[in-house]
Amino acid sequence: MFQHVPVALVVELVTDLSGVDPSAGWVCRVLRETADVLAGVEKLIRTLLAAAHILHVDETGAKVTGARWWLHVSATEKLTTYHLDQSRGRPAITNLGIFDGVTGIAVHDCWASCNAYTDCEHALCGAHIARELIAADETHRGQYWQPKP
């Protein structure tokens, strides 16, 4: 999972590290300005991810002000980008800005919204397959494959 750091804790951290007591507004402004400065870098990362030969994509639920949102991730061995969206479906994946340009291999959990993209090859994620097999074993104890004649 990931760590949410409330603004008040960031203020406390900056105070502890620097001896300066910033306001919550200052922290929010610095975050906005930093995001603006890094927008070009983020666009470049997304372009490079879309051009990757093998691209891993996944999503996980997260609580945002008490509501369920989805954190979508797209990654290679060296690059990662995230997109937080209220939707888990194809519109959110499109908003991530990766899949529409992918022509390599997309590794994912076989979710239908990912399978809908047809310009790339699809591969199943080994971690997801392992989880499914473990769940099948735990759910259906004592069931075995039919022996070959």
Automatic annotation (TrEMBL):
Taxonomic superkingdom: Bacteria
InterPro entries according to UniProt: Transposase-related (IPR052344), Transposase_IS66_central (IPR004291)
Annotated Transposase IS66 central domain residues: 3-146
Protein name according to UniProt: Transposase IS66 central domain-containing protein
Protein source organism: Longimycelium tulufanense
